[in-house]
């Protein structure tokens, strides 16, 4: 009953801007991520409109996968990966996003990466846009607030599809697209840079612009899904949602209704559009009450309906509680926090650890959509210590992942169609929200530190050998 399918896609997940480095090598242009300074969980990153000399920009070197890809993929193969989730840096292919012809050196790099994966029997799972876009598009159109970005994105995807049609089968259009429903999504996912602040997290917010930008992403996603379905029937096209599971803090009906409302707009809104092909009924009231008017063009409804995804993927790290009139202690989390759940423990960064919440979430998603699911991010960010003998005993990470895999198997026994699992940061990389290296997720330790120093040497953690056994047993040996 709890046995995972025989073709289950075990692997790990990364993002180009957080681990590739080589930010200006071989014709690559600056992305939005390249304009973000370092920070910490106490000090926010800054967004700069020009590169400031003497300022640390973590994405510029990251962990330099660009020059270490053979070594890193060999380590993934040693663990037994069946798939490797990575993203393509848009500015390696189109440096400003507005060129008519792609940068051949960028395409050639990903050819080499995919060939290296396929050499070991590792199936690439490619995120087309993972929290970055050409910074030139931010300057020209204020990112996705401008409808012009749709055509530039479609051209980018057409190049990727044709170039890699024999090497990549699984594609995700936008990473955690629902970040655009949250204040933090302004620059992070939409490339929108509002006046008045250079604070990455607390940027001046304009909900009208955010939801307009989201609409443009929905249209862009649907257009490329339709292209894939018509021209490349071998492709499987997926979405990607940051799922923030929310519980009512109490059985007070006010708390229950508040949690339902938050779940609708933060978790279901984007996937209702990408999976069902239409705006959900509850969006109308939300837009009216928040004075949001999404400008749509003739044919947009048909585009959305014709571009529904084939499978649903999501990140899951934590859960939180919601109350109508919150007075309880607040905790942090992925993209947003919530109220402290007294029944859960927390990570070093204050994220509540809730393995059973993953089973609940898988069931909720599958009941709603009935299409194959994949957990493409899940993991524990923690401080890792190198012992005197060189070992890294990250039992806390093993415990976290083990408990979540156990609950995935319970969900499969419940009847959920689960196709794969790619824990986040299979190798240590830069934190998206804070720019830190200290917050480590990987099975592989990278000697790179918050001040930008480090040899970039790779070394296996205890979790490396554990995950190798998990994959070899298809999840039976935990």
UniProtKB/TrEMBL annotation:
One of its GO terms (cellular component) is cytosol. SUPFAM superfamilies: (Trans)glycosidases (SSF51445). Pfam families: Glyco_hydro_1. It comes from the Bacteria. GO terms for molecular function: beta-glucosidase activity. One of its GO terms (biological process) is carbohydrate catabolic process. PROSITE patterns: GLYCOSYL_HYDROL_F1_2. This is 6-phospho-beta-glucosidase.
């Amino acid at each position: 009953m709890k046995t995972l399918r025989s073709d289950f896609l075990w692997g790990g997940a990364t993002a180009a801007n957080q681990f590739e480095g080589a930010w200006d090598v071989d014709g690559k242009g600056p992305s939005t991520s390249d304009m973000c300074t370092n920070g910490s969980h106490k000090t926010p990153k800054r967004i700069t409109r020009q590169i400031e000399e003497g300022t640390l920009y973590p994405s510029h070197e990251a962990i330099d996968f660009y020059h270490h890809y053979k070594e890193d993929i060999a380590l993934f193969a040693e663990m037994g990966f069946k798939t490797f989730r990575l993203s393509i840096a848009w500015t390696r292919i189109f440096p400003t996003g507005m060129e008519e012809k792609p940068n051949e050196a960028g395409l050639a790099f990903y050819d080499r990466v995919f060939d290296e994966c396929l050499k070991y029997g590792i199936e690439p799972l490619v995120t087309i846009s993972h929290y970055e876009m050409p910074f030139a598009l931010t300057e020209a159109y204020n990112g996705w607030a401008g409808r012009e970005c749709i055509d530039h994105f479609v051209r980018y995807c057409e190049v990727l599809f044709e170039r890699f049609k024999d090497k990549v089968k699984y594609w995700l259009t936008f990473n955690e697209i629902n970040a655009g429903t949250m204040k933090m999504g302004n620059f992070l996912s939409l490339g929108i840079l509002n006046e008045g602040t250079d604070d990455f997290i607390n940027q001046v917010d304009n909900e009208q612009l955010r939801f307009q930008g989201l609409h443009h992403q929905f249209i862009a996603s649907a257009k490329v899904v339709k292209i894939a379905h018509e021209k490349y029937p071998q492709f499987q096209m997926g979405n990607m949602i940051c799922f923030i599971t929310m519980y009512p803090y109490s059985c007070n009906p006010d708390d229950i209704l508040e949690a339902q409302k938050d779940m609708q707009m933060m978790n279901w809104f984007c996937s209702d559009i990408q999976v069902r092909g239409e705006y959900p009924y509850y969006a109308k009231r939300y837009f009216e009450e928040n004075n949001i008017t999404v400008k749509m063009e003739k044919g947009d409804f048909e585009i959305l309906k014709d571009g529904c995804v084939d499978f649903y993927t999501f990140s899951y790290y934590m859960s939180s509680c919601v109350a109508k009139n919150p007075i309880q202690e607040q905790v942090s989390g992925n993209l947003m926090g919530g109220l402290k759940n007294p029944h859960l423990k927390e990570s070093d960064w204050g994220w509540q650890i809730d393995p059973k919440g993953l089973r609940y979430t898988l069931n909720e998603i599958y009941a709603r959509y009935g299409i194959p699911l994949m957990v493409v991010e899940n993991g524990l960010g923690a401080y890792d210590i190198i012992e005197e003998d060189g070992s890294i005993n990250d039992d806390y990470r093993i415990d976290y992942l083990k408990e979540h895999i156990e609950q995935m198997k319970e969900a499969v026994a419940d009847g959920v169609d689960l196709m794969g699992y790619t824990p986040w940061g299979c190798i240590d990389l830069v934190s998206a929200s804070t720019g830190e290296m200290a917050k480590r997720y990987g099975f592989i330790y990278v000697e790179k530190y918050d001040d930008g120093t480090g040899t970039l040497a790779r070394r296996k953690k205890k979790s490396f050998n554990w995950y190798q056994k998990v994959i070899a047993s298809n999840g039976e040996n935990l």
